[in-house]
Design goal:
The protein has 313 residues and is an alpha+beta fold. The protein has helices at residues 8-31, 36-110, 291-312; strands at 119-130, 133-138, 151-154, 157-165, 170-174, 181-186, 192-197, 204-205, 209-210, 220-223, 235-245, 250-257, 266-270. It starts with 7 loop residues before the first helix and ends with a helix.
């Protein structure tokens, strides 16, 4: 019989049969549990392996992504720590620089305890060594009150004098320059002498002394104030060696500057413009003027004084 002519009751029989079987199986399973063992076999032998095989790629992908993300986070954390470490090192270096600068400035300020002249603190911006000429450039100029021939010191002694002044900078000639001359005296004996720059870099020399001069290794030379450029009482140099020449009856003295000319970064400029040096009296030298010439000079001066009013009229 064709399928189109099958009665509806016959078409529903398979469905009803399946439903009845399902109800019977459910009832038996709940009351007796006789399907538990086959179900466990099917679950363990078929379902579990298939589920594991299907979930394995996903789990591997998730695990790999998690490991990759953790490595990325660790790398980013490492880069951040390295950057912070570099910043801390830079801060430590800057702190060390500030501490050293603070120590130098404290030494400068401590050296002012015995200084009565007004001072100006300046920093070195450049150095110049050209042959036998030694000079430095400082960051203070005319607008700061710097003037030519101004004395310059550091916490240890005399440095030099200002030779050129610009608007914002100045050039300082060091005492070790061959053009420099500093009047000094030996602190122990008060013997006056002169110190100048030598041909050797960063060294000083003084004129040859007599062989019987009282000078010893370790003697300190102090500025005498003669000449009006360098003030009196500032340490200049120390005697390091003495070479005696018996044939010439003289001695050569080796000196080293007390100022730290090779390592200084800040200096002090002494302002002595407030000191008024009295004019020196002119002492006549030579034989006395004859009376006749003296009278003639007085008559000429009187005549010139008498003619002046008429000239003005």
């Amino acid at each position: 019989m064709p399928e189109s002519q099958t009665p509806p009751q016959l078409r529903l029989r398979p469905v009803l049969l399946v439903l009845v079987c399902a109800v019977v199986l459910l009832t038996l399973t709940q009351r007796t549990g006789w399907l538990s063992r086959p179900y466990a076999w099917v679950h363990d032998g078929v379902y579990a392996p298939v589920r594991t095989a299907l979930h394995a790629p996903l789990q591997w992908t998730q695990h790999g992504w998690q490991v990759f993300a953790e490595k990325q986070d660790e790398h980013a954390l490492l880069l951040q720590q390295q950057q912070e470490n570099q910043e801390l090192r830079a801060q430590v270096q800057l702190l060390g620089h500030f501490q050293a600068e603070n120590r130098r400035l404290r030494m400068l300020m401590d050296s002012l305890l015995n200084v009565t002249d007004p001072v100006l603190i300046a920093e070195l911006s450049d150095t110049s060594i050209d042959g036998y000429r030694e000079s430095v450039t400082i960051n203070k100029g005319e607008r700061d009150g710097v003037y030519v021939n101004q004395a310059v010191i550091d916490p240890y002694g005399l440095v030099g004098q200002v030779v050129e002044v610009f608007s914002r900078e100045s050039r300082v000639m060091l005492i070790t320059d061959t053009r420099s001359r500093v009047p000094v005296y030996v602190a122990r004996t008060q013997q006056r002498t002169l110190v100048s720059g030598s041909n050797g870099y960063g060294s000083l020399e003084m004129p040859m002394l007599r062989a019987d001069s009282d000078i010893q290794v370790g003697d300190r030379l102090v500025s005498s104030g003669l000449g009006g450029i360098f003030p009196r009482g500032y340490p200049v140099a120390e005697v390091t060696a003495i070479e005696r020449d018996a044939r010439a009856a003289s001695m050569t003295v080796r000196l080293r500057p007390l100022a730290h000319l090779q390592s200084m970064l800040e200096v002090l400029l002494l302002d002595q413009r407030h000191i008024a040096y009295p004019p020196q009296a002119v002492v006549p030298v030579g034989p006395p003027v004859p009376e006749a010439l003296s009278k003639n000079a007085e008559e000429k001066d009187a005549a010139a004084t008498a003619e002046k009013p008429y000239a003005d009229a």
